[in-house]
Amino acid sequence: MDCKGIIFDMDGTLVDSMGMWYQLGTMILEGNGLAPKDEDLNRKVCWMTVPEMKEFFEKEYGLCCGSLEEFVRLYYREVDKRYASDIPEKPGIREVLERARAAGIRMCVATATRTSSAELVLGRLGLLPYFEFVLSCDDVGKSKKYPDVYLEAARRLGLDVSECVVFEDALQGVRTAKAAGFRVAAIYESVSPWEAEAIKACCDRYITAYRELLA
Q1: Measuring CA to CA, which residue among 114, 107, 104, 91 is closest to residue 8?
Q2: Confidence class of residue 165 from pLDDT cuts 50, 70 and 90?
Q3: Cα–Cα distance, 108 to 54 (Å, whole number)
Q4: N or C: the chain end with fewer CB closer than 10 Å?
């Protein structure tokens, strides 16, 4: 896809971590002696910012989360353990990044994960140097239900929305970026196969693996 900049989602797009994230809500509840009462719990909370998730657990489950800082420590304790040890990169992504850099395409990351944790896993994998910056939904104060993180990423790149392609793996991100005027390339995510058909219907390019871009 012809473009001057690429805005990459991270989880499920750059790194193979969605299996972990889709269990996070359950992990938090069970760690506090509670059981999920909603079978869609993990799918719901996966798209929330940390403050939104804290409010959700307090309101819907009566979980005493303490201060936001205390909840953040609880939330990221297990996440950072995984990021620092066994979360792998998506197969083929390094070759895609190499080709994009060689073509002079500017790249950044727009993620729902906090910046320090994103930099932890990208740094461990040696992917961080490919990107000009990492931008988190927490940095803009809104989740990917809103376009703010993508728009701010384009602004920081110094590019118009029309000059950027957003790479995403999840339906919410695809829809939001597309509605904001970005061209969107989507990659299949095996953890959420039920989203595939809806993603195909609204993205500009759909791939099941990065090798399709390298052929």
Answers
A1: 107
A2: very high
A3: 28
A4: C
DSSP 88: P
In this structure, what are the phi and psi dihedrals at residue 86, rounded to the nearest 5 degrees? -125, 10
The DSSP element (H or E) to which 50 belongs, if any, is: helix 50-61
CA 120 to chain centre: 14
Residue 133 main-chain phi, psi, to 5 deg? -165, 165
The answer to whether 106 and 159 have CB atoms below 8 angstroms apart is yes
CA distance 101 to 94: 11
172 CB-contact burial (10 Å; exposed 0-12 / middle 13-18 / buried 19+): middle
How crowded is residue 214: how many other Cβ atoms within 10 Å of its Cβ?
11
Sign of CA dihedral 209, 179, 97, 139: negative
Residue 107's SS3 state is strand
The alpha carbon of residue 167 and the mean position of all alpha carbons in its chain are separated, in whole angstroms, by: 10
pLDDT digit string, tens, across residues 30-80: 878 888 888 888 878 877 877 888 999 999 999 887 898 888 887 788 789
Nearest CA among 183, 50, 15, 16 for reference residue 105: 183
Q: Are 83 and 117 in contact (CB under 8 A)?
A: yes
Q: To which residue do tokens 């597309």 refer?
A: 178
Query: pTM of the entire structure?
Result: 0.86
